[in-house]
Write a structure and sequence with these properties.
alpha/beta, binds magnesium ion, globular, binds adenosine-5'-triphosphate
């Protein structure tokens, strides 16, 4: 929500301004439309079914995963499946206790209350939330100085859905109050192809099977990215007066966008190349590396690294980041040719 990066690349997993709003037609509304993440979905469906049977609110739900994999989408799907209301906010929008109190006191029984970027909650808000999550009550201080007293305000039972890309910095008291945790993983090739087919159908775009397959493979296992690239390929097809997106269109389109067969953009390849050429393949510390590529450590860690690691091109070690032999292969280099001074793996 509201995240915007300076030089948003096409395979960056975070939304480009207004993109998610435009993509509303593509957003799955029910569990059956939500492609992939099967194990997680199966369990969640059981918990939803059981909560409905008991006429209780669903346990609080914690969603963890890199950007663009479907956390917000799943939160909405859960509300739809529960047939409850959906109230959405994000931690940076909760500035004062009254911001949270206002939202919580308006919830109806069983509603899904979604807090995005939950790792960014302020401590005072977090404290309030603990009691709300546990007892469905709010501590509200009235009066000032010696006259101040605390009122306990009851609220309706609700389900908090908290989403984060950075589970590592969420406090343990908060984590312990979630009854269910869902960890998203990057989507498989098969699931990505299913998403391309689904989105193409919804947008009335014709795409050949081999073209869909290449597009799926080049989209970093991330639905948001594949939807974005699908639209660009539609533009290229239209520009070349081709009625359906075929393999040559996708091949040519990806080449024009400088996206390679693994879904890497120039900046990703630059990261790998810099580690190879300046730091002998690593290890190099995150801060040093971030400076070398002209990005913040946060951008490096949030955007670039998860997929480079998942693709087996980069490794994190206590001493820093290292490229793998796969990365040399992908860049068309060998450790010897890159350094000119023997093996780089023996630093
Ligand atoms: N499982 C899925 N099946 C089909 N489409 C999906 C799926 N998950 C996500 N999408 C599509 O990808 C887009 C991005 O998903 P979403 O906004 O839910 O990601 P997110 O994890 O909340 O990202 P962020 O961390 O940036 O908030 C959605 O608009 C939706 O169209
Ligand atoms: Mg989201």
């Amino acid at each position: 929500m509201g995240k915007k990066k300076e030089s948003a690349g096409l395979v960056r997993p975070e939304p480009i301004e207004g993109e998610d709003e435009r993509d509303m037609t593509l957003r799955p509304r029910h569990m059956a439309e939500f492609v992939g993440q099967q194990g997680m979905k199966d369990n969640l469906s059981v918990f939803i079914y059981a909560a409905k049977e008991r006429n209780e609110s669903l346990d609080h739900l914690f969603l963890i995963g890199p950007p663009g994999l479907g956390k917000t989408t799943l939160a909405q799907v859960v509300a739809n499946e529960l047939e409850t209301g959906f109230v959405q906010t994000s931690a940076p929008a909760l500035d004062k206790p009254k911001d949270l109190v206002g939202l919580l006191t308006n919830l109806k029984k069983g509603d899904v209350f979604f807090i995005d970027e939950i790792h960014r909650l302020k401590p005072v808000i977090e404290e309030l939330l603990y009691i709300a999550m546990e007892d469905y009550e709010l501590d509200w201080i009235v009066g000032q100085g010696p006259m101040a007293r605390t009122l306990r305000i009851p609220i309706q039972p609700f389900t908090l859905v908290g989403a984060t890309t950075k589970a590592g910095i969420v406090s343990s008291p908060l984590i312990s109050r979630f009854g269910i945790t869902c960890r998203f993983s990057f989507y498989s090739q098969e699931d990505m192809e299913a998403i391309v087919r689904r989105s193409a159908g919804l947008l009335n775009i014709r795409i050949d099977a081999d073209a869909a397959s290449l597009l799926a493979r080049s989209s970093r296992g991330t639905p948001r990215v594949v939807n974005r690239l699908l639209r660009r390929m539609r533009d290229f097809a239209q520009f070349s007066s081709v009625s359906s997106i075929n393999l040559p269109v996708v091949r040519d389109g990806l080449k024009r966008l400088e996206i390679d067969a693994l879904g890497l953009e120039k900046q990703d390849r630059d990261i790998l190349r810099i580690i190879v050429e300046r730091y002998k393949g690593g290890p190099v510390g995150a801060e040093t590396l971030a400076i070398s590529i002209g990005e913040s450590v946060e951008t490096l860690e949030d955007y670039y690294e998860p997929y480079l690691i998942q693709a087996g091109l980069l490794q994190r070690s206590p001493r820093g980041r290292m490229v793998t032999s796969l990365a040399y292969g992908h860049l068309g280099l060998t450790p010897e040719s890159a350094s000119g001074e023997g093996s780089l793996f023996s630093t």
